[in-house]
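Technical note accompanying the year-one report. For the benefit of new consortium partners, we illustrate the data format agreed upon in the data management plan: each record pairs a sequence with a structure-token string. No post-processing was applied to the example shown here.
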Amino acid sequence: MGKIKVYVVARIAREVHAWTDTVCGPLESDNSFDVFKPKNFNPWWLPPSQIPGAVVEMDVSKIVQSHIGLVLPEYGHDCAWETGHYMGSGKPLVVFVDHQLHWLNEHGWLVWVLNERGFKAGSVVTCNPTTYGILKSEPRLASAELRLLTDLEGLPQYMKEVYRSSYEKAG
């Protein structure tokens, strides 16, 4: 098996760079993963209307080549097409949250995707027990897979489980 390719669906603005790096750090430290963070390649200082077409083409190529999408709230509305690709392709989509719960109300389309009974490839992961309790009590996530990790270092193991359940045949 080659590396598990993860595309990070997150805002590219400077103020979220540290959070993106923190969450992706354990994956990048594990040689099993090839993590693509658009913030490292996209001109985050430009308004979306001025981002060159070649950058968009690179992002699309990385999404198509990826095995798993990792969503980091709070993300922008322009991330909807990225998550839509995962739903349409049947590739797994993992949302990692700590205390960020604004997306439950602001981005209803993602909640719908995660709870859609025909889309079994979505999950929400956290290391925060309080957040996990809130997610568990959210009726709109009743059929979504929710996972509480002990710490962020458990994310690589969870992502490997997601990969195996999505791509490796049983037996």
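Partners are asked to follow this layout when depositing records. The chain has one domain: 4-167.
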